[in-house]
Amino acid sequence: MIIIRDVTKTYTNGDVTTDALKNINLTIEDGEFIVILGPSGSGKSTLLNVISGLDTVTSGEITFNSTALTSLSESEMTAFRREHLGFIFQQYNLLQNLNVLDNIQIGADIGKDPLDGQELLKAVGLQEAGNKYPHQLSGGEQQRVSIARSLAKNPDIIFCDEPTGSLDEHNSKNVLAMLQELNNNYHKTIVLITHNAGIAEMADKVIKMNSGEITEFIMNKEKKSAREISWG
Ligand SMILES: Nc1ncnc2c1ncn2[C@@H]1O[C@H](COP(=O)(O)OP(=O)(O)OP(=O)(O)O)[C@@H](O)[C@H]1O
Fold first, then answer.
1. Which ligand 1 atom lies nearest to the CA of residue 48?
2. CA of 174 to the centre of ligand 1 (A)
3. From CA 88, how far away is CA 155, in angstroms rounded?
4. What residue owns the CA closest to ligand 1's atom 26?
5. C-alpha–C-alpha distance, residues 85 and 150, integer Å
6. Which of 74, 94, 225, 203 shows the shortest CA–CA distance to 150?
7. What is the CATH classification number for the domain harbouring 98?
8. Is 11 inside a domain boundary?
9. Does a structural domain hold residue 76?
10. For residue 230, is it within any domain?
11. Which atom of ligand 1 is nearest to the CA of 9?
């Protein structure tokens, strides 16, 4: 479980200060599918970055089980991130001169308890593509490789920042179905940022942000499957 208590983040550039996060309180339970919705500039990426230790908080505390992440040194945080956290971004960030299997292997190499690359390829429906290079795949297929790469180290929590931002509806729903499967079948905690309100229909918990604040929490009584969600 992750507990975020009274977290603020203020950026200062010369005389200009921006309160990107104002007094954020939030609990993320193990195995939850959380969707963070909000307009551009509302603080979604900043929240994801401070929860995952990619950025520091200005004040407040974040704990993961009994570890106070906000008290860790940079190198301790890096080790924690490597062991427990996976990331999927809008850009797939695949290495163009490595084939698909080797791209996935890079993820496995940094984990303590890595999963088998070929098994992961099968799980993302690309068992035939291991020897292909990223430029030979569609955007949706490349994003599935990046999901397999982030899973290779067997993380507890997967942070997704606009994972379908570059994809059409069909490919987006394939990628979302995959994230949903990971959540349902492997109990991976998923924290997903998006502008797309339809994706919130898949979540256990929806967090709406505006101007650095959480403006609404919604617990979905029923979750829709990725194929059923509305697409705006
Ligand atoms: N490194 C930084 N330095 C200064 N200000 C920043 C920095 N990063 C973000 N901000 C500001 O903090 C606020 C929140 O930005 P953030 O990127 O978290 O929003 P967002 O909701 O993720 O937006 P988007 O949907 O466009 O990605 C914005 O006003 C942004 O300009």
1. 18
2. 29
3. 12
4. 40
5. 8
6. 94
7. 3.40.50.300
8. yes
9. yes
10. no
11. 12
The tens digit of pLDDT for each residue in 90-121 reads: 888 899 999 999 999 887 776 677 788 888 88
Specify the number of domains making up the chain.
1
What atom in ligand 1 is closest to the CA of residue 42? 21
Question: Rounded to the nearest whole angstrom, what is the distance from the C-alpha of residue 153 to the centroid of ligand 1?
Answer: 29
Closest C-alpha to ligand 1, atom 1: 11
The answer to whether position 43 is within a domain reads yes
pTM of the predicted protein model = 0.91
What pLDDT, in 10s, does the model give residues 217-231?
Answer: 999 999 999 999 998
Cβ of 1: how many Cβ atoms within 10 Å?
13
Which residues surround ligand 1 with Cβ inside 6 Å?
11, 13, 18, 20, 38, 40-46
Output the average pLDDT for the chain: 92
pLDDT of residue 232: 72
What's the confidence (pLDDT) of residue 189?
96
Q: pLDDT tens digits, residue range 171-222?
A: 889 889 989 988 998 899 999 999 999 999 999 999 999 999 999 999 999 9
Strand order in the sheet with 16-28: 16-28, 2-13, 59-64, 67-68
Residue 230 Cα to chain centre, angstroms: 21
